[in-house]
Write a structure and sequence with these properties.
5-stranded parallel sheet, single chain, 12 helices, alpha/beta
Length: 353
Amino acid sequence: MQTSKLLLLLLLSCFVATIEGSKKQVSAMYVFGDSTVDPGNNNFIDSAFRSNFPPYGRDFVNQVPTGRFTNGKLGTDFIASYLGLKDLLPPYLDPNLTDKEIVTGVSFASAGSGFDPLTPTLGNVISIPKQLEYFKEYKKRLEGMLGNRKTEYHMNNAFFFISAGTNDYVINYFSVPIRRNYTPLTYGQFLLQHVKDFIQNLWKEGARKIALVGVPPMGCLPIVITLNSHNLFLERGCIDKYSAVARDYNIMLQHELFLMQLNFSNGAKISYIDIYEPLNNMIQSHENLGFDEVDHGCCGSGYIETTFMCNGFSLVCSDPSKFVFWDSIHPTEKAYFRLFMLARPKIDALINA
């Protein structure tokens, strides 16, 4: 019995040491993308795509609405904490960020953005190329603090996280006719060219550990169900027509990332993070996972409300942890935490590569 206890303690200590070792290998975390990873950059630009007002942030520290499109933390906050960098990943545009704060990472993401250059113009938000410009600006500030050589090492050991693409379909392709000269397949290929260009540019700036999130089952987003259901109240099932587009895009994305990986040198590693199956499982097997509501959000009716439509006058559910979605598009903190937990093996493999 004593031997068994000693063996268990040894295994646990090895497990803890492995996690601690993983944390030490990451110098910082840099995030690019849309509202799923924007902690408040849109607070500092002239755009209606904001969430720096109640009831957003209802379950955040001191119930502060920071600009995160959920009731609490984002998945990237959980990742930054897991990597031992900081509890919350701040927005780059926050003018109050200190040098000490920015060294361990920031988010450049902007709610409403996407890979298609047209997408961010629809909401007057920060485009992906502009996010890259901000990153280069950030890098110069870092060089002034650390010097060129240490900054290069810092970048090579940082974790780069990208989450975008949903807005390109939901806000852009499916909603306005400008891109209808593309089929869903060719539009996906058009997006992927921009994805590849962006990753290549990050690699040129020193990124060596890059994670890119696929798109979710778009037909299961409450707002998509609302806009496409024959009966708003009685037919709230996922619309497979839209989820099928997401599946096709994710397959093409994984193929392109595989080809890019083959061509990269200097130890660069790209990892695909699946969000489709984890979110789909949350919705289809919700009762086993502690969720009661999956076809509408916690804020207001949950059918259409998001950003300024989810506001201080909106009725809010009593227990967001029972909901997969906070508003008609964005997951709750509980859902984000579960997505993070399911992505952890991929994150571990990437940072230890």
